[in-house]
């Protein structure tokens, strides 16, 4: 490197950021959005923020495995390290070609995210990242390496160091520093180290083999065995504390053939296909699942239509209510929790907010029901894709050992939307119709986002699972996508592809071609493609609409008929029109669901329709109108028989009474032992009084086999039509963000403009003035310029005539001080109007708030 290049090399992260172009800065801020929350005043503040512990930890956690391995190698390399030294640590002596091919991308990624800076001959890992990744007894390095010889011998006596030199055949030195350097040079010399190790006993070499890949620490007694003493005498094991020894880093690297990691992973593991189906079969299967999903959500809301379960005091559903819901939907409890949470996330159910708080449908449910089926499904699928509430954790326990209940608090997992989207994107990368091997998907996700620490949660069993949360969310994603119809037979369907914008999501990253001979980037400083901007609400709405359009042709047309059977059943060979489905749902009970729904007519279901205000004639006409087969005679007899007995008995409030024109029927009731609990007694030949309430009396008589009807105080029959219960308008729960939101292009452009303008103000050189202590100008170091009012006014007026830019100090109305670079345009009435380079706009400032002014140096940019 020439003297000119050395002088131009950045000396700090701030200087490295200062030479970046806007595209590179935008990529940094998009990948690390916490750096512009709030927008930093200049590049120095941006560099400081990029080096804070919280920001660096967040950035490291978002690296892929090979990029993280590269950062870990830099943490154990000399500071600074050359690209060649880094390549030797990553590829080892044999120089794995896959590692050599992938290392430029990893280095470029670390540079882009401001975790590494400097030219290829002086690569520096930011200090906080080095502290996090470097080996220490408290925090072992992921590489398994220990401290260097210099670090391990820091507290060792000079005499002991000289003894080690003599044992390995090195001449004694005059000071400990040169002694340690000589020992380190010996351990780094492959030829001499091979000879030194060859002279050791086999037992000694076995000890080194056990420590070489970590952890590098071991225990020894106060009187070590001879094979351990041979290692201690030669410095191949160095004491770190009483009874504890460590394998020096240089020795471990020799034994590892120069590799920092046992298994570098430069290439992501492929997602393997378990089976391949025709795309038409996948889409048809997914459409069937989507129809079933809509039917399940509607069945859930119908179950809660008159008011759902009570809300627990701590929030959420009780275990008993979740079990009841699972029985009603005929699904396992975890699946019931998924449907309940999906309806809640979509804003279809919420708590009513009453004193006796219960869950109920929201007004949004009625609007949702009126949408076409494909649009209803797209709304549910889009909700699921972006929701942070994670029903898979229901039944587990939180950090305070409290049970996690469906619809309760603490179910948000901020990583869920990203994991769901990434899992579907990996499926989209497979050939159409291919279903993945689940473990290959999990392996790929673990490579893309390896964990630096345990992420475990307590489960209902009380034991912590070894599997990390992201892997569990990925497993849940695969099963939930199948339930919802995003996938069919395990493969991503066409509507699911549209939902995630698959063409963009699966586009591979490629490196830019070199810019030509004039490109000043180092040979290994590969540029990454610009990071994709986050999807806007308009993008998501367009993707949802596209998914609905693709799904609509796959749905069958709603039917206006059923097939009545002689065994008192009706078969719906497909989805029914809403009006038909609603009436049939009251008149009959659902016996089985699937491609065709089977309804069964019973005395209870017919009585339910009669209680809702229908007459026998209405029911006969309805069935004749909507049946493609003749109405079976047994069904006609059933309706007539129930209708003939319906309402002959009348129940009113006495506490309760029963009246009937046929006194023989009342005699039959009194003689029935099953009616004893109702406390009946005869008041008149056609009237019985009861101790039970009217509702209990109705149920009791129906259980015996009668068909009583309730009546009002005026003697009129009460129609028991179900009243739908709705909550007040409720907003759907908002997803919990995983850190600051990713900035859009408009915010990025404004932030970069503000940071560069602030940097100009803070670094612009100025001419020396009378206020300078040494009479020399320079870049302002934070102190505001100070000049008198008359000098300030004169300098401003002169700058208006010459068009020169000035550096000023300014204190606003809140007392906040700042420094700015301005080009005065007009000075009058105690105000200066100027183009403010810091704000990139024309502004007017009161002169009495200007602390002082200084002229910029002639070479100021």
TrEMBL record:
It comes from Streptomyces ardesiacus. GO terms for molecular function: helicase activity. Residues 562-684 form the Helicase XPB/Ssl2 N-terminal domain. Residues 503-544, 724-745, 760-786 are annotated as: Disordered. It comes from the Bacteria. Residues 730-743 have a biased composition (Pro residues). Residues 791-853 form the WYL domain. InterPro entries: WYL_dom, XPB/Ssl2_N. The keyword Nuclease does not apply. Coiled coil: none annotated. The keyword 4Fe-4S does not apply. It holds the Pfam family Helicase_C_3. This is Helicase-associated domain-containing protein. Keywords: ATP-binding, Helicase, Hydrolase, Nucleotide-binding.
């Amino acid at each position: 490197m020439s003297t000119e290049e050395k002088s131009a090399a950045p000396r700090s992260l701030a200087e490295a950021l200062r030479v970046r172009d806007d595209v590179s800065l935008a990529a940094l801020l998009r990948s690390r959005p916490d750096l512009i929350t709030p927008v930093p005043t200049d590049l120095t503040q941006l560099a400081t923020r990029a080096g804070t512990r919280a920001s660096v930890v967040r950035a490291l956690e978002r690296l892929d495995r090979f990029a993280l391995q590269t950062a870990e190698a830099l943490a154990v390399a000399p500071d600074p390290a050359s690209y060649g030294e880094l390549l030797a640590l990553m590829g080892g002596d044999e120089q794995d070609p896959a590692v050599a091919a992938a290392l430029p991308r990893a280095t470029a990624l670390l540079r882009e995210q401001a975790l590494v800076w400097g030219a290829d001959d002086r690569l520096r890992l930011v200090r906080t990242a080095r502290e996090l990744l470097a080996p220490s007894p408290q925090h072992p390095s992921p590489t398994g390496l220990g401290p260097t010889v210099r670090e391990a011998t820091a507290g060792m006596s000079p005499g002991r160091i000289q003894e080690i030199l003599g044992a390995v055949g090195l001449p004694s030195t005059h000071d400990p520093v040169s002694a340690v350097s000589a020992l380190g040079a010996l351990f780094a010399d492959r030829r001499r180290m091979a000879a030194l190790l060859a002279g050791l006993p086999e037992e000694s070499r076995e000890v080194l083999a056990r420590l070489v890949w970590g952890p590098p620490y071991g225990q020894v007694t106060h009187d070590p065995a001879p094979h351990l003493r041979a290692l201690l005498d030669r410095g191949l094991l160095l004491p770190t504390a009483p009874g504890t020894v460590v394998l020096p880093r240089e020795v471990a690297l020799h034994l590892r053939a120069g590799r920092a990691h046992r298994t570098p992973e430069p290439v992501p593991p492929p997602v393997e296909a378990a089976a391949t189906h025709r795309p038409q079969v996948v889409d048809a299967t997914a459409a069937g699942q989507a129809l079933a999903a809509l039917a399940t959500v509607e069945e859930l809301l119908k179950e809660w239509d008159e008011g759902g379960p009570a809300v627990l005091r701590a929030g959420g559903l009780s275990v008993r209510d979740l079990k009841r819901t699972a029985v009603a939907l005929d699904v396992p409890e975890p699946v019931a929790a998924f449907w309940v949470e999906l309806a809640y996330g979509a804003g279809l159910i919420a708590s009513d907010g009453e004193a006796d708080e219960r869950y109920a449908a929201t007004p949004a449910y009625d609007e949702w029901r009126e949408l076409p089926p494909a649009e209803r499904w797209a709304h549910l699928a889009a909700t699921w894709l972006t929701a942070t509430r994670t029903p898979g954790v229901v039944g587990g326990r939180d950090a305070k050992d409290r049970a996690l209940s469906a619809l309760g608090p603490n179910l948000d997992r901020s990583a869920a939307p990203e994991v769901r989207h990434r899992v579907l994107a990996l499926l989209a990368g497979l050939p159409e119709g291919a279903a993945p091997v689940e473990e290959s998907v999990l392996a790929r996700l673990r490579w893309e986002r390896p964990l630096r620490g345990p992420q475990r949660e307590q489960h209902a069993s009380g034991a912590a699972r070894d599997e990390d949360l992201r892997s569990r969310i990925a497993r849940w994603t695969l099963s939930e996508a199948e339930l919802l119809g995003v996938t069919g037979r395990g493969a991503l369907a066409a509507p699911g592809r549209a939902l995630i914008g698959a063409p963009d999501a699966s586009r591979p990253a490629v490196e830019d071609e070199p810019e030509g001979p004039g490109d000043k980037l180092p040979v290994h400083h590969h540029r990454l493609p610009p990071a994709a901007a986050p999807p806007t609400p308009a993008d998501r709405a367009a993707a949802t609409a596209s998914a609905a359009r693709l799904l609509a042709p796959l749905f069958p047309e709603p039917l206006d008929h059923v097939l009545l059977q002689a065994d008192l059943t009706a078969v719906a060979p497909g989805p029914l029109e809403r009006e038909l489905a609603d009436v049939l749902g009251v008149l009959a009970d659902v016996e089985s669901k699937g491609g065709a729904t089977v309804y069964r007519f019973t005395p209870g279901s017919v009585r339910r329709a009669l209680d809702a205000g229908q007459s026998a004639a209405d029911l006969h006409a309805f069935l004749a109108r909507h049946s493609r087969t003749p109405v079976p005679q047994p069904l006609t007899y059933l309706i007539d028989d129930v209708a003939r007995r319906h309402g002959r008995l009348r129940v009113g409030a006495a506490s309760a009474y029963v009246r009937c024109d046929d006194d023989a029927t009342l005699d039959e009731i009194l003689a029935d032992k099953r009616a004893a609990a109702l406390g009946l007694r005869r008041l008149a030949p056609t009237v019985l009084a009861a101790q039970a309430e009217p509702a209990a009396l109705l149920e009791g008589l129906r259980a015996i086999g009668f068909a009583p009807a309730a009546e009002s105080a005026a003697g009129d029959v009460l129609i028991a039509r179900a009243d739908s219960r709705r909550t007040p308008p409720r907003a759907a729960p908002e997803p919990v963000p995983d850190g600051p939101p990713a900035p859009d292009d408009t915010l990025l452009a404004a932030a970069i403009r503000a940071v560069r303008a602030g940097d100009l103000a803070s670094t612009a050189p100025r001419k020396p003035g009378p206020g300078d202590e040494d009479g020399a100008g320079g870049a302002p170091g934070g102190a505001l310029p100070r000049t008198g009012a008359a000098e300030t006014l004169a300098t401003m007026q002169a700058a208006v005539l010459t068009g020169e830019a000035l550096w000023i100090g300014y204190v606003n109305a809140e007392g906040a001080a700042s420094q700015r670079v301005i080009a005065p345009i007009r000075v009058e009435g105690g105000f200066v109007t100027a183009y403010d380079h810091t704000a990139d706009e024309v502004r007017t400032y009161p002169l009495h708030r200007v602390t002082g002014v200084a002229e910029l140096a002639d070479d100021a940019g």
